[in-house]
Specification:
Shape: globular
Number of domains: 5
CATH topology of the largest domain: Neuraminidase
Mean pLDDT: 93
Strand order of the largest sheet: 89-32-92-91-90
CATH architecture of the largest domain: 6 Propeller
């Protein structure tokens, strides 16, 4: 039968005309192509060109040309390959072949930075913005190689590629790009060292430096903050840090530590008493605590103390040597770690406190109240979170293991001989139990249910359970504060009332329900079955027979016992740890209670009651706003203390001479060149004037009237003013604290607002009322009548020109810390409810009482800030060569080359102004 041309053939009795099917093949470069027609007749093709199927089809028959087998590494497609034969050969079937290509892709994991660019085969770039899958836009020809690399790393991370090379024989989906955070070192150089200095980064990483360069051991992640401070300078030197704060984007080698001699400057007690709160380690009464709460002993006689306002856990040996076991004073946080690298957020309030307990292995457990967690500290000081998860102050409730559990203001903790921990979960009104593996269950009570019902487990109820204790039989005792009772829980969780009667508040000794308690808070059990309870007024003893007696007149939040039957009390208000023998003899084991009084006398025989402001006159006398005594005191240059105006304990608003006058919580004082004394009489909302003859008058404001009205004398009004200063023209400047303004009073008593807008808190610089402040307390002036302001809750120092133009001299609003530096690089930590002393020397340097850091800062006219007295976050009093130690300094004044400052209930003097 002829092929093509429409030649006929005979089948049976007639002739059938047939036609061929064919076309052209293009782009073919490999073997293996097989075409097929109508699903049956195959035609191998080996080269580009024309082709014709061997089988012809009858006129009118349908045809369908397909690719039966693709060539190696290519894909061929058929065009014009189907139809019906119409009296002609089909010659225009087009088969087009092209190389097969495959996509290349994979997954990216742990990407947090920006800017990651991947590249394939050195040319195809792909930007990746998040973890997940990716695919390059350009495919790779079959059999050819792909090569995926990182063309650009993301910020703060390093990404690596695995499975990124090979031949492409199918779509590639297994390329893995893994990213990890970069870490960077913090370091710099030191100069002027005559001995070793201890530097600290971020409140926990300590480094001893004696050479010219240094690098901290702990690297930081990209984007983390660093804050390098001098923890302990060399003896007799003052050290400052430049470039010590910032955000990590690369290795930091530019921190500068410069140490200079204190040039004979020294600090000494001038008058009063400096005992009181602090954060000093040491022996016995040389140590300082700041509102200690929980106390517990271990088997070797060591005591452990939750030092609440310092946010640290302290250790006291049997020889009364006090050290800091864990945490860093002044740092509130939830970091696990070793020693000072860990952080706590302990609590002390009217109805919650942080307790401690020990187990037989020497571990310490802490009710980390504000973090709503239970922490564990090994004997080596390694801190972990045993249970709970730090969160908001409200907390929550959930049983579970470790961080899955939730607490609400956990307070007291106790352990049994099996290593279980019992927790007074105060906010939830229940008692929790934690196994050594960290599994938390509810031991007694029902979360959120307030009551006084005895019963088993959830059938019982409590009303603000605080302290918990255990005895040798694994009974648990609870100070049920607002029920005014002591509860007992058996190992089987059976709750009974051991002593007191729910709802009956009093202090009555007796047996069982006949006894009465005055808000019991702390509790501890001794080895003989006695229970000791601290309440608002004293410490009580409850025998195993429920006989209640008064054990000692001292009290506090926490109580602990040792194997010898001694009782230890965390005397919270006085900042000391008391020891009570079984015979009831009370001694102070560690810490030093503040001495408060109003006695006149010389040096330390004169006493004060929380003084605030200081001022000095041309004769070298120092005037003290003795705030809680409601008087103004005078200290001569020979340190003789007398009462200049007012009568101690008689608060009022009377004008008069000497003792006939009265004040109400005076905070700030200032003097003028004529020897007059001006007083910010805070609670009276007035500014008072005292002549050298002690005649007291009201210069401006009206007693008891809060406002922001400008005017003359009593027509003006103030809102709890706390600071005053004068200039050479006799004008008085007032830190009108709760109006957040700075006021000016002329010698004629005309009051105007120099800067700030009453009732508007902020940190805006500007002129007059366009500027804003936030609770300013301290003011001072220089010889050019510029006013300097310690701007309380902004943590900055501001400057106001005589024209009322306000600028920020040092610090950054809203940024709290202790960093030295220039201008905005410096940091302060102002306690707003404390007086912020500020003074200006004849050289134009500004000195600021950075009370939250327990330091005195010096600011040059160019805004360069250094720490000249005290060590940041180490509160106490250390006389002698600078830097010394201070405890929450407040008022300051400069007389010649001597700086006077208030620390504790005393006045200290610093000679040879640094």
């Amino acid at each position: 039968m002829p092929v093509g041309g429409g030649s006929g053939g005979t089948t049976g009795g007639g002739t059938i005309t047939t036609y061929t099917i064919g076309g052209t093949v293009s782009g073919l470069t490999a073997a293996g192509l097989v075409l097929q027609i109508n699903g049956g007749s195959n035609l191998p093709i080996s080269a580009n060109g024309t082709f014709t199927f061997a089988t012809a089809l009858a006129n009118g028959a349908a045809y369908n040309v397909t690719v039966f087998a693709q060539p190696n590494g290519e894909t061929c497609t058929v065009n014009s390959g189907s139809g019906v034969l119409a009296s002609a050969n089909k010659t225009n079937v087009a088969v087009t072949c092209s190389s097969t290509s495959f996509t290349v892709g994979g997954t990216v994991s742990s990407l947090t930075g920006t800017g990651l660019i991947l590249q394939d085969n050195g040319a195809d770039n792909l930007s990746v913005t998040a973890s997940g899958s990716f695919t390059f836009a350009t495919p790779v020809a079959n059999g050819t190689s792909y090569g995926v690399t990182v063309y650009a790393q993301p910020t703060g991370q390093t990404c690596t590629v695995t499975g990124g090379t090979g031949p492409a024989t199918a779509n590639v989906t297994g390329v893995a790009v893994s990213c990890i955070a970069n870490t960077y070192t913090i370091g710099g150089s030191a100069s002027g060292l005559t001995g070793s200095a201890v530097l600290q980064n971020n409140g926990g990483d300590n480094l001893t430096v004696s050479g010219s360069s240094f690098t901290f051991a702990t690297p930081l992640l990209y984007g983390a903050s660093y804050n390098v401070t001098v923890l302990t300078p060399p003896a007799g030197e003052i050290c400052s840090v430049t470039g010590g704060t910032g955000t990590v984007t690369a290795n930091v080698a530019s921190v500068g530590v410069n140490c200079t001699s204190a040039s004979g400057s020294s600090i000494a007690l001038f008058a009063g008493n400096i005992n009181g709160p602090g954060s000093v380690d040491g022996s016995g009464t040389s140590a300082r605590f700041n509102s200690p709460t929980g106390v517990a002993s271990d088997s070797t006689g060591n005591l452990y103390v939750a030092d609440a306002y310092n946010n640290t856990i302290r250790k006291i040996t049997p020889a009364a040597v006090v050290t800091t076991l864990a945490g860093s004073a002044g740092i509130c946080g939830s970091a696990d770690g070793s020693g000072s690298a860990a952080s706590f957020c302990l609590s002390l309030s009217y109805s919650a406190y942080s307790g401690v307990a020990t187990d037989s292995a020497g571990n310490v457990y802490v009710g980390d109240t504000s973090n709503n967690t239970i922490r564990k500290i090994t004997s080596a000081g390694v801190v972990t979170t045993l249970a709970g998860s730090p969160g908001g102050i409200i907390g929550g409730y959930a049983d579970g293991a470790g961080s899955a559990a939730r607490f609400s203001s956990p307070s007291g903790v106790a352990t049994d001989s099996s290593g279980n921990v019992y927790v007074g979960d105060t906010g939830n009104r229940i008692i929790r139990k934690i196994t050594p593996a960290g599994v938390v269950t509810t031991f007694a009570g029902t979360a959120g249910v307030v009551g006084s019902t005895d019963g088993t487990g959830a059938a019982a109820s409590f009303n603000w359970p605080l302290g918990v204790a255990t005895d040798s039989a694994a009974n648990v005792y609870v100070a049920d504060m607002f029920n005014y009772t002591i509860r007992k829980i058996s190992p089987a969780a059976v709750v009974s009332t051991l002593a007191g009667t729910a709802g009956s508040l009093s202090t009555v000794n007796g047996t069982g329900s006949a006894a009465r308690f005055d808000m019991p808070v702390g509790i501890s059990a001794d080895t003989t079955g006695n229970v000791y309870v601290t309440e608002l007024s004293d410490t009580r003893k409850v025998t195993s027979a429920a006989v209640v007696s008064t054990f000692a007149s001292v009290t506090g939040y926490g109580a602990g016992t040792d194997s010898a039957g001694n009782v230890y009390i965390a005397d919270t208000a006085n900042g000391v740890i008391r020891k009570i023998t079984p015979a009831g003899i009370v001694t102070t084991l560690a810490g030093s209670a503040p001495v408060i009084g109003s006695a006149n006398g010389s040096g330390s025989t004169g006493t004060f009651d929380r003084p605030s402001g200081l001022a000095s006159d041309a004769a070298g006398n120092v005037y003290v706003a003795d705030t809680f005594n409601c008087v103004i005191r005078k200290i001569t240059s020979a340190a003789v203390v007398s009462t200049f105006a007012g009568t101690a304990g008689s608060c009022g608003a009377v004008d008069g001479t000497g003792a006939a006058a009265s004040f109400s919580s005076p905070w700030g004082v200032a003097t003028d060149s004529a020897g007059n004394v001006y007083v910010a009489d805070t609670q009276n909302r007035t500014i008072r004037k005292i002549t050298p003859a002690a005649v007291v008058t009201t210069l401006a404001g009206t007693v008891g009237v809060s406002g922001s009205t400008n005017g003359t004398g009593t027509a003006a009004s103030f809102n709890l003013p706390q600071g005053v200063a004068t200039d050479s023209a006799g004008n008085v400047y007032v830190a009108d604290t709760w109006n957040s303004t700075i006021r000016k009073i002329t010698p004629a008593g005309v009051v105007t607002t120099l800067a700030g807008s009453a009732g508007t808190n902020g940190s805006t610089n500007g002129t007059g009322t366009a500027a804003t402040f936030c609770r300013p307390t301290g003011v001072a002036t220089d010889s050019a009548a510029n006013v300097y302001v310690a701007d309380g809750c902004n943590d900055v120092v501001r400057m106001i020109t005589p024209a009322g133009v306000v600028t920020t001299l040092a610090g950054t609003a809203g940024v709290t810390g202790s960093a030295d530096g220039t201008g905005a690089a410096a940091q302060f930590n102002f306690i707003v409810n404390g007086h912020l002393g500020i003074a200006v020397s004849s050289a134009g340097n500004i000195y600021v009482a950075d009370n939250g850091n327990s330091t005195i800062r010096k600011i040059t006219p160019a805004g360069v800030v250094t720490t000249v007295i005290g060590v940041a976050q180490q509160a106490g009093f250390m006389p002698g060569a600078l830097p010394g130690l201070l405890a929450y300094p407040s008022g300051m004044t400069i007389s010649g080359t001597t700086l006077y400052l208030i620390t504790g209930n005393g006045v200290a003097s610093v000679t040879n102004l640094p």
